[in-house]
Amino acid sequence: MQPASKIVICEPLSDTSKSGLVMSSDGKDKPEQGKVIAIGKGDLPVKCKVGDVIVFQKYTENIIPIHGKDYNFVKFEHILAVI
Question: CA 57, CA 26: separation in Å to the nearest integer?
Fold first, then answer.
């Protein structure tokens, strides 16, 4: 996959059980995490590479299913950190 300019595609990493229940310890919204699988062209505000785990702002990503698997499409400016 090759994302458009200034977009990172990542596999979501979440606290979801095998049965699909979202596990939350305190009920507060937390930033999302994902493993980078593709990076669009452009200047990244945070340097990351394919395989890195990133933290990005909650509710700013577009979740798109491709071949039966969900992927997060995150704008560069919504990346908060690389773990």
Answer: 18
What is the Cα Rg of the chain in Å?
A: 13
Separation of alpha carbons 22 and 38, rounded Å: 26
Closest CA to 11 of 67, 57, 77, 63: 63
Three-state DSSP state, 47: coil
- Global confidence as pTM: 0.76
- Domains, the chain: 7-15+30-82 (2.30.33)
Q: What are 41-54's pLDDT values in tens digits? A: 888 777 899 999 99
